Amino acid sequence: MSIASSTHRIARFALYGVLALFCLYYLMPLYVMVVNSLKPLSEITSGGMIALPKEWTVAPWRNAWSEAQVGVEATGMRPYFINSFLMVIPAVAIATILGALNGYVLTKWTFKGSTILFGFLLFGCFIPFQIVLIPMARALGMMGLAGTVPGLIFVHVVYGISFSTLYFRNYYAAFPTELVRAAQIDGAGFFTIFFRILLPNSGPIAVVCVIWLFTNIWNDFLFGASFSDFNSQPMTVALNNLVQSSTGVQEYNVHFAGAIIAALPTLLVYIVAGRFFVRGLMSGSVKG
Amino acid sequence: MAQVPEGGSALKFSKSKGDWLRDALPKLVLSPSVAISMIFVYGFILFTIYLAFSDSRILPSYGWAGLQNFQNLFTLRAWNIATINLAIFAILYIGICCALGLLLAILLDQKIRAEGFIRNIYLYPMALSFIVTGVAWKWILDPGIGLEAVVQGWGFENFEFNWIKDRDMAIYTIVIAAVWQTSGFVMAMFLAGLRGIDQEILRAAEVDGASTFALYRRIVIPQLRLAFMSAFVVLAHMAIKSYDLVIALTNGGPGIATTMPATFMYSYTFTRNQMGVGSASAVMMLMTIAAITVPYLWSELRGSKQ
Amino acid sequence: MIFTKTARLLTTAAFACAAMPALAQEVEVLHWWTSGSEAAALNILKEDLARQGISWQDMPVAGGAGEAATTTLKARVSAGNPPVAAQVLGMGVTEWATEGSLGDISVIATEEGWDAVVPEAVKRFATDDGKWVAVPVNIHRPNWLWINREIFEEHDLTPPTTWEEFNTVAQTLKDAGVTPLAHGGQPWQDATIFDDVVLGLGGPEFYRAAIHELDPEALGSDTMKAVFDEMRVIRGFVDDNFSGRDWNLATAMVVNGDAAMQLMGDWAKGELLEAGVTPGEQVLCVPAPGTEGSYLFITDFFAFFDVSEENQSGQQAMASALMSPKFQEEFNLIKGSIPARADVPSANFDSCGQQAITDIAEANAKGTLIGSLAHGHAQTPAVQLAIFDLVTEHFNSDMSSEDAVEELLHAVEAAQL
Hints:
Helix content of chain A is 74%, strand content 0%. Chain A has helices at 3-37, 41-45, 59-67, 78-108, 114-122, 129-143, 149-173, 177-185, 190-198, 203-219, 222-226, 235-243, 252-285. The longest helix of chain C has 26 residues, at 187-212. Residues 1-23 of chain C have low confidence and may be disordered. Chains in contact: A-B, A-C, B-C.
């Protein structure tokens, strides 16, 4: 065996070693959550956060899903799932479509000041949500949307557009303008070009945008807690109610199970679409 | 990045009603988003600025208080601590995320066998909010039951990791958890950037005898400029907004050592019913955001035009 | 003809039936009681109301002793869409009343004679300008000292009744290698100890002057300096790992024998019961050192917002149900607190609860029933949390007592602006 190939081997070995080490770092919190969600409470309080359960149990999961106390009634988190989906899906769809149209205009139909307008829209990414809480509550009240699902959708669309515009604008910037011009000469109009040429080629960035928005909106607590009603509270509020208790007994195993349940949709989205995610980022949005 | 054409609708036809519509249509399509931003971003910012000069307490009120709220703000030690913390946090967080993201992306780009699997492991924390992972992190960082106890249990009696209980070090534990959440995402961005680089150039440089290090430094990394920009936007906004994380990990403690501007602002506006002071702190935050992002976006956007 | 008559009768009956649910009220209630025992306690109310045909619309937002719910409440009020009733702590009621957001339930209060049965100190929060705007559902006592009996017997100790005795007892335990005090280093927990020390060293008059009236002389006095001295001594009696710990984990330390004592409110009973321990038996409850004869209190109120007319009868019914002696007893048996009405028999409560009921009657008579700072019954949140900041900063650092007193004066002044 040549020296070169053996150093190469050592290097490969080290490479995998480093990658594996980082896997541990990233997996650690998830491990803690999963392991402790499968233990009886007594094992947790007697110490032993890292240890595998001595007695395996799925009771905490069942409990978090359908029996735990998240309000006056012991409903578990089940009923809140639907509330979250009712809010997240329309919000993501609307914000993505608007972002795509904005990106299209900002790259293929630029006009004087359009770059500045892009910067203007982009600043919305940075606004801390706590700042807008009270004025937004007023605005929703005036629009008659206070405490409703459409109100929540509206809020999430408003603060989602900045990101979706950023993603699509960067993606379409790399899209060959010649194709657009050629279509234009052929007499295709604004929307025809968008729907026939750009949109069919937007798969990868749409995945990125949807993942981003879905995760952010699904995980939002502040808006969910403030702008919802008794029958529209989303998942995060339920999880918060499960985990937080002021003067009650804390069932950590149920908390962890509930946390994983609440995170399952976003985790699934990442795992299923993870492959397309990097591909989507690759195909233009961050390419040099 | 591809060139943004000057006036995308460059082809002008003779003026007619249809042409007017053709010209106006893109602007019409953009206008709802602009209008929304105008009201719900900039309008609310103006409202916040107004509140910062008002005597608002539990709810907005419109009595004029002049600079009183700002004077109060600057005498508060918690605000002082919060600004220093944000500086430490933002620099370390953005720096480490970029460095680690780049490192992992380069390592993963070496034709790794289980790349997809490893990538998902690096990426998944982005899917979770700190409402979900907060308790787990708190436990891991707690010397009594977490990492310190476990490693000591393995026989390394001298191992110490009690930063979260230490006033001077607690802010760094927040960096650790924050890096955990986003570095994988940054990695994905850089990986995408790396995959987009023309392999021909790399091969040519290799033939010229450039070392791997030089190759990355001279050719690869400069080409990742747009990836850096996206990463910066994502990271900067997360740093400034970091709220859930601090609440979940330390709730601002020990003492008030890990107060951050976002937690400060929330506490004064909503918990302490000092909305005027809270709004003043919000204005300071917005000014910081503007001071950092506006020049950066300006140069990037101008750069992309040339 | 008979047929028509029957039909008409049937129609009337059907109409009457249909009209019933139309009369039926709905009450939307914002609260933060989501953990098992708390929610179970609240469920009693829900069922009470259901029997009267009033349906309960649950709006729970937990977190940070009502902090999250307070934010939600602000958003709801700003949107012009307040809930029918919301759980609010003492000073919160006062602030919402000042803001003009609350309704008026005096009619039912007068009818049922609440004035006679609610302790004066509690009533002050529930009324605004003579009008009843909120209903007290319980009284918690935050100034308890919980003691692991076995440890105390092992070391031949008696429960301390002054802070000096506390220091001696704790030092003995520390020398024997036992953690004397289980404590969680969170601002409200630090403030709970601070409450006990101010009251224990200074007495009720001093507590009122310093904490309620913010009298600069009291705040800057030597007594206040002694309070911070004692806080520093107490800091030496907690383990190294106290920072950030949840209160219930500290309670578990006392239950498991990892620590000898804890200064905590009576909600710790829930943890004890969960661990199979009888309060007053394996774990003793005594008033915090030096506070015997005084009674700090916390009360959860349901504040009634100014809502449309059709919701007001629901409010009245809910208020009446909340104040019924039967509900107050059942609720507080589960919750671990004692009734806000003085006329509920104490027979069914555990020994700690019975002691509390006796103590509060005595304190009420003597005028030493005092709202607690640590739990929002003494100051506006602005001042309260400014004091928290300082207390927790002092407890976690090596700040001297002189500096702490000076900073206290400064912080209190700044927060009042």
